[in-house]
Amino acid sequence: MKAVLHALHTHAQRQGDAPALISPAHTLSYAELAERVDALANWLSQQGWSGPLAWLADNDIDWVVLDLALAQAGIAGLPLPPFFSEAQRQHVLADSGARWLISPDPRGQALPSTQLTALPLPHTGTAAPLPSGTCKLTYTSGTTGAPKGVCLSAAQLDATVAALDAAIGPLAVSRHLCVMPLAVLLENLAGVYLPLLRGVPVELMPLASLGMAQFPPDVPRFIGTLAASAADSLILLPSTLQWLVAATAAGQLRKSWRFLAVGGGKSAQATLLQAQALGLPVFEGYGLSEAASVVALNRVGAQRIGSVGKPLAHVQVSIAADGEVLVGGNTMLGYLGQDSASAQIATGDLGQLDADGFLTILGRKKNTIVTGMGRNVSPEWLEAEFCALPGIRQAFVYGDEQHGLHGLFFSSEALAANALLAAHNDQLPGYARLSGWQLLEQPLSVAAGEITANGRLCRETILSNHRLIGLGENT
């Protein structure tokens, strides 16, 4: 974080009046941001608080001020994703041993330079100590169990930001709009730290204004907010990329973009090709929290659709004999309460490196389906392909050697869905075609434990809830 904080104070001296953070209520210049960060960092240091300090807040200026102040004060921060369930949140607070929860709650102790307050948390004394040098503690989303705490150092965060800065190079954007929660490490590093390092203003909108405060999201509101913004840079998920591409194709969104990064899951090649045809500068990437976020990225002059780009300069990527992607060079300090991380992370993802160094992610190793003909099929590939079809909002592919491949779909256009699915299914390679599928009357839900609040499939729960294998499929 030294590089980001140094850049902040350098910009404050050289272009102090330039906007750094822009929200609906206020614009903060670089000089004002540096002043607020300094004041809060000094106050935090005087309190004698030890990390991690947990906080829960909307996408706003105070979130960024607190984040930077904690780093400057040398106190480990624990941002809580707003999409975590109450049970997940309580698990994180207990597991981390956080002694304070910072939020807008008016009952707490006021923090200077912000409208945030701090409330003390019960101390059980059972939490594992943080590894030495921990700057940020981030928790995985927990699709198959309780979230795990990933401990990252300031040097690891700086390394990712510096590598992204070098990869993007001379590409200039005028403003970045954060459309993911700031507690998501990808948005935190690439959507806040990187623009601040480069002197680019960051626009912060409440998640409700983006239509992202509830599930399912409000897609028209999301598109409307993009249309009204002056930003020319976004970081997208595969789902939000589909919304943007569809709105652009329909003439509902007419903007000149400079940089549209997409990550967090596999994007359908059809969506990426449509984006290219529309002239949208979409760059797919890949990363994981255990490597301090971004590992590989397509970029101007080095792009291959269907791949996640070339590995960044701060990491080394290789492929194991069984096809698993291995990442070294910027690995985490470790999971909280577990041994230190090894020099190389087994990601659990299957991938390929081509002769030119482009990395392609095929799917999750543990999710691979072996068909009766002995072919390995990644369900994520098929799910991305089907979700690229008009009206298909959710897709879940499952199967085994005995029953073949099947699908579960939710569509906003149920009457047309079967015909669309059948036509696309016929275009797939023979070994990857579905033997049958079901259309859901209601979407897979967070409440039922079938998806996480940011849309990731909880496969075992879906299989259990819907009793899928061999039951009720139709074509």
From TrEMBL:
<protein>
    <submittedName>
        <fullName>Long-chain acyl-CoA synthetase (AMP-forming)</fullName>
    </submittedName>
</protein>
<feature type="domain" description="AMP-dependent synthetase/ligase">
    <location>
        <begin position="9"/>
        <end position="330"/>
    </location>
</feature>
<dbReference type="InterPro" id="IPR050237">
    <property type="entry name" value="ATP-dep_AMP-bd_enzyme"/>
</dbReference>
<dbReference type="InterPro" id="IPR000873">
    <property type="entry name" value="AMP-dep_synth/lig_dom"/>
</dbReference>
<dbReference type="GO" id="GO:0016874">
    <property type="term" value="F:ligase activity"/>
</dbReference>
<dbReference type="Pfam" id="PF00501">
    <property type="entry name" value="AMP-binding"/>
</dbReference>
<dbReference type="InterPro" id="IPR020845">
    <property type="entry name" value="AMP-binding_CS"/>
</dbReference>
<keyword id="KW-0436">Ligase</keyword>
<dbReference type="InterPro" id="IPR042099">
    <property type="entry name" value="ANL_N_sf"/>
</dbReference>
